[in-house]
Amino acid sequence: MxxxxxxxxxxxxxxxxxxxxxxxxxxxxxxxxxxxxxxxxKSVANVFFEPSTRTRLSFDLAAQxxxxxxxxxxxxxxxxxxxxxxxxxxxxxxxIGVDVxxxxxxxxxxxxxxxxxTGLPVVNAGDGRGEHPTQALLDVATIARHFGSFEGxxxxxxxxxxxxxxxxxxxxxxxxxxVATKLxxxxxxxxxxxxxxxxxxxxxxxxxxDIVYTLRVQTERGAEIDENYVRNFQIDSRRASxxxxxxxxxxxxxxxxxxxxxxxxAGSARSLVRExxxxxxxxxxxxxxxxxxxxx
Length: 296
Ligand code: NCD
What we know:
The chain has helices spanning 12-30, 54-65, 86-96, 110-118, 133-147, 165-176, 202-206, 227-233, 237-241, 263-266, 273-292, and strands at residues 43-48, 69-73, 100-105, 122-127, 154-158, 180-184, 198-199, 211-214, 248-250. The chain is 40% helix and 14% strand. It is an alpha/beta fold.
C-alpha cells in the first residue's frame, strides 16, 4: 500500500482482504499474541489540525504496537501559532525524517496535497466533508465480525449524511461489499446528489435493515440540532423496540448524548459502538503496517 487517502478506489476483494487482516489482528491483540511489527526504526507523525480523541489515540497506539516511533504535532502549541503555513509545517516534519504522515484537517483535499508536497505516504485521518477511510475500514470490519458475512445485509445511514465524511467513506465501502444501503434524515441532512434510496420518514427508514448507522449532527459544519430532529430522528427505546431482532446500532463517535441515540439505546446490547472503537487499533495497524512494509 502506498498511501490511504480514500476508500473509493479500493475494490471489494481488496477490502475483504484488509478486513480479514483487521479481524485476525484484533483476535491476536485480544489474546495478547500480536506479533505484527513494522520494519525496525520506522516512524509515524500524527498531524491533526482538528480535534480528535479516538482517531488520534488509536493511530498512536497502532503505531506503538507496530514498534514504530510516534511523534505528534499539536497545531495549537506548534509554530503554526506563529503563523507558519500548513505546507511549511508538513515539509518541516518531513525534513525531520518520518516515514508516514497521518493527517486530519477541516478542509477537503489537504491530506492529498500534503502527500504531493512532501512525497511521503499519507494516511487521511479525516478531511473536512471529504473522506475518513480508516473509519470506514474499522466500521466494515466491525460489521464483518458481527454478522460473519456481508451477504444479504441491508444498512440505513441515519442523520447528518450531507455534512459527514464518515458517510462518504462508509457508502463507498458498503457499495464495494454489496450491502444494500439507504440514507435517512431530514431533507436538509440528505445529500442533493445520490443514487442511493433516501427517506425522511424514520419508521420507513428503519424498516427491514440489519444495520442502523447513526451519524453525529455536524454543528461545526453548519448543521443545527433542534427539537424536531430529536423528536423525528433520534433512535430511542420505542424506535429500537420496533427493529428486527438481529439489527445492530452503530455510531462513529463522538456522540451528541441524547441526540442521535437516547442514553438507554446507546448503552444497549444492540450497540456495536464499543466494538467500533476497539477495532480502530487493528484497522490502523493494518494500514500503517502495509505502508511501512511490514508483514501482516
Ligand atoms: C468522526 C470524524 O471526526 O469524522 N469521528 C471519528 O473520527 N470517530 C465523526 C464525527 O466527528 O462525527
